[in-house]
């Protein structure tokens, strides 16, 4: 940033301090560089923690159970004799049953997702479709309304209104997702989702309730990002349109929207990526079964909510059920990573146009 | 900039004040035997003169009584003899902590025991009572942690499997099995469902994986409504799931239908069955009793007529889906951490009241004998050296 | 719409359909705005109504209990305090170091800086549940095997808020004008002396605001902790980093899933407490921001 000036300044230093200060400087730079690498280390950690178990999931077999385990101890037996670890016969290694590795074909080629059963099925499509449906619902709620609020803030609101509205949006954006989850469970589900879905009965858990609530959650972020994108549209364009006699609406839809489109698109993509990764709301509102369905009124799981769900009841480490957490996590990571990359590309294009 | 520092200091002082008020919350009291006490003080011990009194529920009253006259009342009672001795075992367990994990069915029972035990030890040891954390990893998940040595006690809604025992043995972990309560697996349906009683063969048909598995209630019995069946099940790693696989007659959990909503959290089932006219699910009897206003519990018939799940029918094993619940303390914890032994003893000696307060079916007389025997074995474990 | 089309449409300036469309458009904007405001209002009012009966001093001072009547959130409050403060402190330190390194010691156009910047932006977009997976695989189990303790939760949340903290602290450093640095260099100070004595004090308000926002994110987060293995019942305050614990969002999650009405009240009351804490934090951030609006 100020390379030349500081080098010049350094050469002018009194010689007595220089050595000591230079030494301190070197240590400081070294320590800071080490600290700055933490982000890279975390990234490597994420990739490694996802890829390794996923690789096992697709290539190695895992213990699924023991053939000798089906002995039920009833009330009478439990009172009949004393047992401790020395009285229980151990399973013989020859009785171990294994689950085969899951093939990519099964993972992407089947629509049955029952990973936690002994003879599990691992078709990930119900989760992908669930994620898309919840995301779509959230988009329908958040994107038009978010752009609308941004238009309002950008063109219609007086400075005083803006000064009130902005913090309100910030507050709404800061509400924790578990609070939205509770809201979905006690309000959006029973009072809204149940009454607006014409195609089927809506149960107590539904993708619809989850999607609407996720949409409400990302709305303030969508509005703020879209507002920023609109603020970046050069004033000359806007004023030119007004000079030609355009009304505010025409300025909004005819000038700001097309000129800020790439920024707004980037905002939409970021908001979508938030919606895809949302866990707690969907976990609370959409139920616990990965149903293969396109009906939003039905119960469903998203990729993120499945991961959370699988974490609540502990899976035996290294079982196929446990490894699904990582396989689905990797898929989720790749999708959100791709979306973020896409948004950055869109933004870069948009910068090239106006700077 | 200095004003920020001042604000920071002020904030810290305020936090410290709030924290210390919270810490010094316990009221000083002067009570005597026969005086009233509060439910939250249940099992609290206080010294009056040379004797000790404990806050106990008045016999004949219950936390869950529908009859307002028998609604729970609590009174201080003088501790006598052996009971008093047993309580003082706890005083040697200062500032210890106990990790309990496992079955989510047993968790409510263990949580009540933990709460009472903490109240008791706090009153003996001041603020430094024994700390008990209760997790809900599921029976299988609990044994996994237990056999890795991470927990002191594992809750289980089924007996330990030989495969799990093998892993424990491989890690050098020994344990004692203690039956702690009983449970009936209640089959629950939506309140609007006209069915009151199911034959066990019908239960099997409903839950067994097959190409012709029923999708409507009328597929099982033509006189039943034609509403679509919506299944809710227990978490696949839970003892409830295993037990239901055995007790429902489908021939083990591998044959249970997969198109069910499964969750480690029984509330998911309650809410689901409550909200879906064709919903059906199963869970521990205590949940069914607690949620009697939300779901309908079915009677079951294994050939000798319809039987309702009650304390008597579960204890007598006439209800077709009855099962015992266990806790598994780790022997090394019993030896090295006196608090674990004290907790197990406390749990066992007060198990009847704890079962009642947590709405579980108490042990039968023969099970009590097994429990006493287990306690004797624990007492005979070698003591910690040094 | 091209410019010619726009001009053509404008020539018809007095048509009633245009005015009608304008009104319609404004109505649509109002509806969008109302959606946001109504959401916030309904959420707050709904929570207050269901939580009012459970809110009391006892609710804050009591510990969780198997009986809803005497349940409280003291251990969750202290758990949140431990976890949030730890992760806030650690992530702020690391974020500051990273930001200083990037802003003050590297060339903005260097490949290294661009690489780290892109990397941090990527991390900021990673869903929180993925940090839960990282925590599960590396901290709770795997190499560190800390179990579900204060330490592992704090470590997981630290990793989660770190990217946000870095972005915020970098913005704060960027806002300090170069003239301040150059003046310092002109007086013979080294880079580190300049950073330590000039840049950091000047950037303090920005750093404070940014880290408060990061801390409030950690305070409200639930998803990664759910995956790490939430405990059902912890009735004591944390005693150290290896202690069992619970936090407010987990308590709310647990109570929200219960079906009995009493628990709904408890969940709502805990939400009120959590929101109050968050509003207080935000208010402090806004005050700092407004007070220290230095115009360079």
Give a structural overview:
The complex is a heterotrimer of chains A (about 350), B (about 375) and C (about 300). Chain A is about 70% helix and about 5% strand. Chain A is built from 15 helices and four strands. Chain A has helices spanning about 5-10, 15-35, 40-60, 75-80, 105-110, 125-155, 160-175, 175-195, 205-230, 235-245, 250-260, 260-275, 280-285, 305-310, 320-355, and strands at about 60-65, 95-100, 115, 120. In chain A, a hairpin with a 6-residue loop joins strand 3 (about 115) and strand 4 (about 120). The two termini of chain A are about 20 Å apart. Chain B has about 375 residues and is an alpha/beta fold. Chain C has about 300 residues and is mainly α. Chain C has a single domain (about 70-290), classed as Orthogonal Bundle (MetI-like fold), CATH 1.10.3720. Chain C has twelve helices and one strand, in the order H-H-H-H-H-H-H-H-H-H-E-H-H. The longest helix of chain C is centred in the N-terminal third of the chain and has 36 residues, at about 15-50. The model of chain C has no long low-confidence stretch (mean pLDDT about 90). Chains in contact: A-B, A-C, B-C.
Brief description of this entry?
The complex is a heterotrimer of chains A (355), B (386) and C (296). With 355 residues, chain A is mainly alpha-helical. Helix content of chain A is 70%, strand content 4%.
Number of continuous helical runs of chain A: 15
The 3D shape of chain A can be described as: globular
Query: Which shape of chain C, going by the Cα principal axes?
Result: globular
Helix content of chain A: 55-70%
Tell me the domain tally of chain C: 1
Could you describe the largest sheet of chain C, including whether it forms a barrel? Answer: none
Number of strands of chain A: 4
Q: Would you state the CATH class of the domain at 125-354 in chain A?
A: Mainly Alpha
Question: Average pLDDT of chain C, to the nearest integer?
Answer: 89
**Rg of chain A to the nearest angstrom?**
28 Å
CATH architecture of chain C: Orthogonal Bundle
Structural class of chain C: mainly alpha
Quaternary state of this entry equals heterotrimer
């Amino acid at each position: 940033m100020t390379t030349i000036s500081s080098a010049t300044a350094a050469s002018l230093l009194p010689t007595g301090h220089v050595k000591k200060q230079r030494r301190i400087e070197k240590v400081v730079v070294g320590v800071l560089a080490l600290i700055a690498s933490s982000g890279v280390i975390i990234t490597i950690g994420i990739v490694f923690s996802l890829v390794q178990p996923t690789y096992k999931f697709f290539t190695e077999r895992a213990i699924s159970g023991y053939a000798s385990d089906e002995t039920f101890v009833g009330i009478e037996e439990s009172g009949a004799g004393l047992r401790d670890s020395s009285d229980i016969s151990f399973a013989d290694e020859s009785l171990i049953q294994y689950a085969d590795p899951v093939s990519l074909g099964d993972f992407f080629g089947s629509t049955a997702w029952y990973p936690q059963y002994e003879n599990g099925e691992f078709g990930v499509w119900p989760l992908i479709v669930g994620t898309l449906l919840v995301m779509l619902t959230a988009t329908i709620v958040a994107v038009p309304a978010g752009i609308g609020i941004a238009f309002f803030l950008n063109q219609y609101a007086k400075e005083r209104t803006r000064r009130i509205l902005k913090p309100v949006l910030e507050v709404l954006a800061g509400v924790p997702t578990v609070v939205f989850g509770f809201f979905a469970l006690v309000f959006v589900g029973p009072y809204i989702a149940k009454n607006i879905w014409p195609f089927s009965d809506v149960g107590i858990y539904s993708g619809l309730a989850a999607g609407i609530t996720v949409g409400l959650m990302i709305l303030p972020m969508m509005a703020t990002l879209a507002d920023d994108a609109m603020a970046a549209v050069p004033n000359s364009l806007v004023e030119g349109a007004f000079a030609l006699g355009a009304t505010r609406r025409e300025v909004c839809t005819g000038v700001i929207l097309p000129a800020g489109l790439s920024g707004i698109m980037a905002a939409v993509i970021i908001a979508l990526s938030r919606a895809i990764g949302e866990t707690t709301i969907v976990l609370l509102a959409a139920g616990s079964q990965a149903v293969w369905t396109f009906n939003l009124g039905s119960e469903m799981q998203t990729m993120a909510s499945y991961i959370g769900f699988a974490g609540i009841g502990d899976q035996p480490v290294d079982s196929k059920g446990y490894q699904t957490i990582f396989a689905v996590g990797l898929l989720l990571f790749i999708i959100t990573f791709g979306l973020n990359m896409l948004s950055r590309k869109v933004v870069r294009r948009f910068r090239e146009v106006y700077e | 900039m200095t004003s920020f520092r001042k604000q920071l200091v002020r904030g810290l002082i305020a936090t410290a004040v709030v924290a210390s008020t919270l810490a010094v919350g316990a009221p000083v009291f002067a009570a005597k035997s026969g005086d009233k006490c509060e439910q939250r003080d249940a099992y609290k011990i206080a010294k009056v003169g040379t004797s000790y009194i404990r806050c106990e529920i008045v016999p004949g009253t219950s936390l869950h009584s529908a009859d307002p006259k028998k609604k729970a009342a609590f009174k201080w009672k003088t501790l006598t003899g052996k009971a008093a001795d047993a309580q003082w075992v706890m005083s040697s367990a200062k500032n210890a902590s106990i990790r309990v994990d496992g079955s989510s069915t047993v968790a409510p029972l263990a949580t009540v025991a933990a709460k009472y035990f903490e109240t008791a030890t706090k009153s003996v040891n001041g603020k430094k009572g024994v700390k008990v954390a209760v997790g809900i990893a599921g029976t299988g998940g609990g044994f996994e942690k237990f056999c890795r040595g991470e927990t002191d006690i594992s809750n289980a809604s089924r007996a330990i499997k030989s495969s799990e025992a093998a892993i424990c043995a491989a890690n050098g972990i020994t344990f004692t099995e203690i039956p702690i309560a009983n449970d009936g697996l209640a089959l629950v349906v939506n309140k609007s469902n006209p069915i009151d009683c199911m034959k066990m063969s019908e239960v099997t048909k409903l839950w067994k994986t097959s190409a012709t598995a029923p999708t409507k209630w009328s597929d099982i019995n033509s006189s039943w409504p034609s509403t679509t069946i919506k299944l809710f099940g227990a978490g696949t790693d839970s003892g409830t799931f295993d037990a239901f696989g055995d007790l429902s007659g489908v021939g083990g959990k591998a044959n249970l239908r997969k198109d069910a909503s499964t969750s480690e959290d029984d509330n998911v089932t309650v809410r689901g069955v409550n909200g879906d006219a064709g919903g059906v699910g199963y869970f521990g009897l205590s949940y069914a009793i607690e949620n009697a206003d939300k779901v309908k519990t079915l009677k079951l018939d294994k050939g000798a007529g319809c039987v309702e799940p009650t304390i008597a029918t579960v204890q007598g094993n006439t209800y077709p889906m009855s099962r015992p619940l266990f806790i598994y303390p780790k022997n090394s914890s019993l030896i090295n951490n006196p608090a674990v032994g004290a907790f197990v003893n406390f749990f066992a000696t007060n198990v009847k009241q704890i079962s009642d307060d947590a709405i579980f079916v108490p042990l039968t007389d023969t099970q009590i004998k097994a429990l006493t025997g287990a306690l004797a074995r624990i007492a005979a474990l070698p003591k910690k050296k040094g | 719409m091209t410019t010619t089309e726009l001009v053509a449409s404008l020539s018809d300036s007095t048509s009633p359909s245009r005015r009608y469309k304008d009104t319609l458009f404004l109505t649509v904007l109002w509806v969008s705005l109302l959606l946001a405001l109504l959401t916030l209002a309904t959420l707050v009012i709904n929570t207050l109504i269901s939580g009012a009966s459970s809110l009391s001093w006892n609710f804050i001072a009591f510990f969780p209990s198997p009986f809803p009547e005497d349940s409280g959130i003291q251990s969750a409050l202290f758990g949140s305090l431990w976890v949030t403060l730890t992760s806030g402190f650690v992530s702020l330190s690391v974020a500051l170091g990273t930001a200083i390194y990037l802003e003050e010691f590297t060339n903005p156009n260097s490949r290294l800086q661009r690489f780290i910047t892109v990397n941090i932006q990527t991390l900021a977009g990673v869903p929180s549940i993925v940090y839960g997976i990282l925590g599960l695989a590396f901290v709770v189990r795997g190499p560190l095997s800390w179990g579900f303790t204060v330490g592992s939760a704090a470590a997981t949340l630290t990793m989660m808020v770190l990217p946000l903290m870095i972005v915020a602290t970098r913005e704060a450093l960027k806002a300090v004008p170069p003239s301040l640095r150059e003046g310092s260099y002109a007086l013979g100070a080294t880079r580190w002396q300049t950073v330590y004595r000039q840049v950091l004090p000047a950037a303090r308000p920005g750093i404070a605001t940014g880290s408060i926002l990061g801390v409030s994110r950690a305070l409200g987060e639930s998803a990664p902790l759910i995956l790490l293995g939430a405990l059902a019942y912890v009735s004591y305050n944390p005693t150290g980093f290896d202690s069992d614990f619970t936090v407010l969002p987990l308590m709310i999650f647990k109570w929200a899933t219960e079906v009995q009405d009493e628990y709904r009240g408890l969940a709502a009351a805990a939400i009120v407490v959590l929101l109050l804490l968050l509003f207080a934090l935000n208010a402090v951030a806004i005050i700092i921001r407004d007070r220290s609006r230095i115009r360079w």
